[in-house]
Amino acid sequence: MVDNNLFSQFISAIGQAKKIVFVGDINQLPSVEIGNVFEDIIKSKKITTVELKSTHRQANNSKIVELAYMIKDNNFDLKKLYENQTTENQSKTDLQTIFVDNQEQCLKEIINNYNLDNKTGFHEPYKIQIISPFKDDILGVKDINKFIQNNRFKQEKLDENTELCIQINNSEYYQKDKVMYLRNENDLSNGDIGVIQKIHKDSNELKINFNDKIFSTINNASLKNLTLCYACTVHKTQGSEFEKVILVLDPKRSSSFIDKKLIYTAITRARKQLVIIANKNSFINGINKNPETRDTTLVKHIKLMYKKRKKSHYSYIF
């Protein structure tokens, strides 16, 4: 989502545009920085708004869609969600919930569902994404990435001293590692996901295949903009979609950070399969928790602008 400062820069840069079309979802996480631009514009009721209600990302009978609507409409019912289903046939639907009580169980289920045994997670890295709300701690993004990488050593019997490894910012990267680029530069965008194809240790360069389309050589100056991406935060996945998503909610972490918008954003990244690994109570409490309201003055300013200038030169459609 766009924050106040970026939105202001955008409006200033486009000048006398005749029409601006914004696409978004107010049920997802707001911007990391200050503001609540998209929701405020709609709340002003001064700009033409169109709501799309048909779902095209998932199948018509999707349990992912059913869960998303339950969260959106504040009527979550776990029993109804799995009505007429058993634990055994739950895996035949596109939604599977695995409730755990400790971090060890959680890590075991991450490995089981990342399909390390048949290496699907490594051979088809763009199809599977682990998502965690947190960066740090045992079940945060950093440790999950290292955990998956270490298990890859066991699966493929990699030698940590091989020429297939390079060290960047005190982290090790190996050939075939899944990575994310964190800046907008060199024809790459912040959040682009790729796989390391070649490591040139003599020149300190990496050849990376981004989304099976762009082959980019990342030199020494840009290496700091890389991070492992077997797992990433919910915020980093906004705007992306994956065939399979594994959402991990640490059973030992406080649920104060987890709310309905965070869970809604995470689960709607999945197209064909969603696996939720969490403590049952933390998961349910998060779904039923409304996020803190962001109080801004944007609605007031939009209404004031329209009051002063009834015949605007602009037409807005959302």
TrEMBL record:
Residues 229-277 form the UvrD-like helicase C-terminal domain. It holds the Pfam family AAA_30. One of its GO terms (molecular function) is DNA helicase activity. SUPFAM superfamilies: P-loop containing nucleoside triphosphate hydrolases (SSF52540). Keywords: ATP-binding, Nucleotide-binding. Coiled coil: none annotated. It comes from the Bacteria. This is AAA domain protein. The lineage of its organism: Bacteria, Bacillati, Mycoplasmatota, Mollicutes, Mycoplasmataceae.
